[in-house]
C-alpha cells in the first residue's frame, strides 16, 4: 500500500492521513529513549516503596498509597471544573451543566454495560460519555479525560461546519490529556495530605506508563518490523518475540524482572495486532 501510494516509507504512509510529519514521530521516540533513565529511577522508587527486592511486571500496577480516597461523582465534577478554571467560566459552565443537568454521562457500572469507557456523539447532538465510575481518583481522571474529548467535540460542532467537524485521533488525545494534566495540578496544589498526593501521583504515573512507556515501546517495535519488511528481510515469530523482549528489558532496566519468553510473546502479539 505504501508503494502503491508512492510514500517513501510505511511510517510516512501511516502518518499521512493525520497530516503528521515523520519528524514528529522520530522526535517523540528519540525523546523517550533519552529519558529512559527517568523511568529507571521511577522503577527504583516504586520498588523501595513496595518493599521488594525486584519488581515483577504486575508490581507496576500495585497500589502504593495506604489510603484510597472516596470521591463522589459530584465531587469529581467540582474538582474537574476547578482544575479547568483557566479555560474560562463559559467553558466550565458548559461542562458542569453537561455532567449534572443535561445527562451527558452514563456514570455507574450496570448489568450488561460495556467495560469500555469513551466519549461519542455527532454534530447535532450533545456528547455522550460512557464510564464506570467507582469513586476513585482513577475514575475522576477518566472522567476528566473523556470530558476533554466531549468539550473538544462540543465546541467543534458549535463553531465548525459539518465538513470540518471531525478531527484526528492525534488532535483528540491532546484535549483529553490536557484535561487530566490540569486537574492533577489542581489536586496537588490544593490538597496537602501525603496519602492523597501519592494517590494522584500513582494515577499520573499509570497514565504516563500507558502513553509514554508502552506506546513508544510498541511504536519502536512496529517501526523496526516494517523497516525490515521494506528491506526485504524475513520476519519470524522468534525474531519478533526476542526484539520485543529486548525493548522492554531496555525500558525496565535492572529494577524490573523480565521473563523474556512471556514478555516477548505477549507484547509482540499486541504490537503486531
- The SSE string, one letter per element, is HHHHHEEEHHHHH
Q: Look at the helices and sheets and give the structural class.
A: mainly alpha
Report low-confidence residues grouped into runs of 5 or more: none
Strand adjacency order, main sheet: 1-3-2
- What do the pLDDT scores average to? 94
Termini gap: 17 Å
Strand content: under 5%
Total helices: the number is 10
Radius of gyration: 21 Å
What does the main sheet amount to? 3 strands, mixed
- Fraction of residues in H or I helices: 55-70%
The overall strand count is 3
The best one-word shape is: globular
Walk me through what this model shows.
The protein contains 10 helices and 3 strands. Strand 2 and strand 3 form a beta hairpin. The model has no long low-confidence stretch (mean pLDDT 94).
Secondary structure layout plus pairing:
Elements: H1 10-16, H2 22-34, H3 36-50, H4 73-83, H5 89-100, E1 105-106, E2 118-120, E3 128-130, H6 137-159, H7 169-190, H8 194-230, H9 237-252, H10 260-272
Give the gist of this structure.
The chain is 62% helix and 3% strand.
Give a quick set of tags describing it.
10 helices; 3-stranded mixed β-sheet; mainly alpha; 3 strands
